[in-house]
Amino acid sequence: MRRLFSTFAGGLPGAGLVVMRLAATIVLIARSIAALHAGPALAPAAWPVLQFVLALLLAAGLWTPVSGILLVLNEVARLLAHTDDPWANLLLAALGLALTLLGPGAWSVDARLFGWRRIEVRHRQSRPPTLSR
Known about the structure:
Number of strands: 0
Strand content: under 5%
Structural class: mainly alpha
Distance between the termini: 55 Å
Order of helices and strands: HHHHH
């Protein structure tokens, strides 16, 4: 999984990635709740539940490249099905693609699980060589 990320951005770029993840999450959760509240049949109800799970993965920053690609595929499918406002679908697809390419940022579960570790090696206390005969 580490190979999918170039870096885990911190500071202001990391905060920007959190804002992007949360913006996509809010819209996906609102759509899922609206679709479930409408009371569709069982088979179509699975799609809003999957969108809700995708939103939770994005919010946590868990498996972000996979979640981002799934978001892009979801929004392209909605765009082709003409179900919503096409501009909202296009915007969410762009957010998903950007998150896939940029990674989750330093404030994510991915950074904790797959981030670069720093290993500090202490210098051994060297003993003077002993002469043995």
